[in-house]
Amino acid sequence: MPFRLLIPVGLLCTLLPLHHGAPGPDGTAPDPAHYRERVKAMFYHAYDSYLENAFPYDELRPLTCDGHDTWGSFSLTLIDALDTLLILGNVSEFQRVVEVLQDNVDFDIDVNASVFETNIRVVGGLLSAHLLSKKAGVNVEAGWPCSGPLLRMAEEAARKLLPAFQTPTGMPYGTVNLLHGVNPGETPVTCTAGIGTFIVEFATLSSLTGDPVFEDVARAALMRLWESRSDIGLVGNHIDVLTGKWVAQDAGIGAGVDSYFEYLVKGAILLQDKNLMAMFLEYNKAIRNYTRFDDWYLWVQMYKGTVSMPVFQSLEAYWPGLQSLVGDIDNAMRTFLNYYTVWKQFGGLPEFYNIPQGYTVEKREGYPLRPELIESAMYLYRATGDPTLLELGRDAVESIEKISKVECGFATIKDLRDHKLDNRMESFFLAETVKYLYLLFDPTNFIHNNGSTFDAVITPYGECILGAGGYIFNTEAHPIDPAALHCCQRLKEEQWEVEDLMREFYSLKRNRSRFQKKTVSSGTWEPQAGPGTFSSPKNQDRAREKKPVKQKIPLLSCPSQPFTSKLALLGQVFLDST
């Protein structure tokens, strides 16, 4: 018998009236400028409260006005909020925090840290801030964006995570000790998202540092998950990284799985990787076939496709935004509107919502100020301009301020039914929730650049274009400039060509003193043997005996070259005397 959703009539009735902040009688949409300033005030109320009461701890406890470490003792809220400062236009505070982080954050500590959370919040936050440093007026060092203190910090943090990937499957453990590596008794069971959410940060890191190990381990983990899907094309929730056997076989788009799908799409866009996109599109077919009912997405058994949990989880609200990135706007809007009805029912999204019953699930009634629905609204508004999406932004500002605001920041809502609060303000509130709200109401923000403006930067590898737009947000809303991945690398063939060229010229320089005039009188120029190559008749004969090699485009004909290559005249490269 097919599963059908039955929405109670009473729920439909409660969804009709809009609560506070609705458009006026003339039907006007929310004023973006007004709500932009409201969002900015929200940010500073939370941010200042953290600095005054919680720094250097990871997060603020807003009800007791103090701080606590949650994910590893990194001053996490400061790292997570750094790029938001620039998006709000505060360059002076951005510059100050960069100095503070360099002086205070240490990853060489005896702490058990979440591999997933450290990557998306710390590595992602530092990489984003590094790439935005020049725009923020930071006096960047020579060689930026291929070098810099925040990049070195991101690399150090990521290297602390690498021991987690040393498993028979290549899929990482969920927790690693930053000083000692993986603890001997560590559980091998990791959620799917904890395995497949590294390609954005790690590929960026490999591109900027030149060390392929980060991208390699991220790709290996992605591929092993792909190979572990069921015959009907679904993945489960938790897997044993030692054996590759699924431990939790619930399949869906929400908690424990969500950012795996997200990173297939964003990794495909960031890296222009058709294989990653093809993987997502295959998953998308299975998700539509087995988990979608009336534009809701349920949880099903990964091998059979039978419904296991007819619930909507608040973390699933990222899905319409992801659909918009692959151009599926109509389906995205229909699903978004389903989720928005839940928001209007409670003034927030409960962690779990029973779809047939139209109400919260016991012990899952809370709303920790998550960003996912606002994130989807931001993406869809950029795609459609539909004013309904601004109404969600308005409702979010009004609800969060009315229910969650306290003297020291904004508190997690423990229960949306009676608005009881919990003593925690997650760092993602400043990294994601406030950021996406602000970008929803700020259509001219530099993040939305359509390529009409850009910066040209000279790197050790030639000229590079940055800041032209197309930013890819990691799953913690840290924007990565995709153009930066092309600033610090060149083709291996070109690199080998340069190395051979330099060896040739240094060899020529050493031999010159032996046969200066004699060699010049008896030798000939051989431009076909390579730029700047000079050889004697004997060497010419030896060259003719060599096996022909595939012709390459001469490096020195490239319009963008290293400094020494630009000093080329008649095939000779003039090097310094050292």
From TrEMBL:
* Ranges of compositional bias, category Basic and acidic residues: 539-548
Q: Which Pfam families match?
A: Glyco_hydro_47
InterPro entries hit by this protein:
6hp_glycosidase-like_sf (IPR012341), EDEM1/2/3 (IPR044674), Glyco_hydro_47 (IPR001382), Seven-hairpin_glycosidases (IPR036026)
Under Enzyme Commission nomenclature, its number is 3.2.1.-
Which cofactors are named for this entry?
Answer: Ca(2+)
Where does it live in the cell? Answer: Endoplasmic reticulum
Q: Which domain of life is it from?
A: Eukaryota
Q: Name one GO biological process term.
A: endoplasmic reticulum mannose trimming
Which Gene Ontology molecular-function terms are recorded? calcium ion binding; mannosyl-oligosaccharide 1,2-alpha-mannosidase activity
Q: Which residues make up the binding site for Ca(2+)?
A: T475
Q: Where is the signal peptide?
A: 1-21
The catalytic residues are E117 (proton donor), D258, E351 (proton donor), E372
Per UniProt, the keywords (alphabetical) are:
Calcium, Endoplasmic reticulum, Glycoprotein, Glycosidase, Hydrolase, Metal-binding, Signal, Unfolded protein response
The record's region (Disordered) falls at 519-553
Would I find Calcium among this entry's keywords? yes
User: Quick one: a GO cellular component term?
Assistant: endoplasmic reticulum quality control compartment
Q: What class of enzyme is it?
A: hydrolase
Q: Is Calcium there in the keyword field?
A: yes
User: Family, per the entry?
Assistant: Belongs to the glycosyl hydrolase 47 family.
Q: Which PANTHER family match?
A: ER DEGRADATION-ENHANCING ALPHA-MANNOSIDASE-LIKE PROTEIN 2
The record's function comment reads:
Involved in the endoplasmic reticulum-associated degradation (ERAD) pathway that targets misfolded glycoproteins for degradation in an N-glycan-dependent manner. May initiate ERAD by promoting the first mannose trimming step of ERAD substrates, from Man9GlcNAc2 to Man8GlcNAc2. Seems to recognize and bind to exposed hydrophobic regions in target proteins.
Record's protein name = alpha-1,2-Mannosidase
Organism expressing this protein natively? Orycteropus afer afer
